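Work through this:
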Amino acid sequence: MAAVIEITDLNAPELAVFSRLTEAQLRSRREIEKGVFIAESPKVILRALDAGVVPLAFLMERRHLEGQGRALLDRCPGVPAYTGAREVLAGLTGYALTRGILCAMRRPAQPEAETVCAGARRIAVLEGIVDATNIGAIFRSAAALHTDAVLLTPTCCDPLNRRAARVSMGTVFQIPWAYIGQSPAQWPRPGLERLRTLGFKTAALALRDDALSIEDPRLAAEEKLALVLGAEGDGLAPDTIAACDYSVRIPMSHGVDSLNVAAAGAVAFWQLRAK
């Protein structure tokens, strides 16, 4: 069983990972092997453990030690589990814990785009999406609706962001993903060329009058297709749309001009799934 430690000092240095470090500080992008992320809720933590992610410490409401946290603690012998009342933990983190459990985990090594795309027929490419909730929802839909991998441009929100991983219901640990480039200069044309080298045709979801309907049979017939989704509000950059093989639009009714990017992604993943 994990080592249970009652919280007596909110300023204790070993609690800094849960209270005083920003997402950027946790991530340590320059030295990814030293990076940490926070997983929230038992389901997310369990899926991370199933994927082989290394736990570093738990933060758990006292009532969960013999409740829904017991299986997690039994699975992680020797890992410290800091505990206290719900109010104490909220005072430490600054927010109420969803399901009352957090876990600080070692950030896994980041694969290359070519690795996660090996053998894939349908992938999602996310351009500059910064909202953690949308990132999480897109991952959940991609995993559920037969998408083989997700690629993110360098300006996207981190999928291991606490909220993104929670909204994804832990599917960020189930579906392969990678960044396509390490700097903004590596997208769109260098990144799109990498996709073409891998044999993918690219389809930009865009609100253009000349775009193909998502029901066009040519799209579903493509052996390997990358669906490119843009940021909230502005959508995909014009250069990205121009450089893609297809522009694709979801037909709307009742005068609605667009869907939220996560909803649009779900429609596209299902409609254009590999048959």
Notes: Residues 200 and 224 are 5 Å apart (CA to CA). The first strand starts at residue 3 and ends at 6.
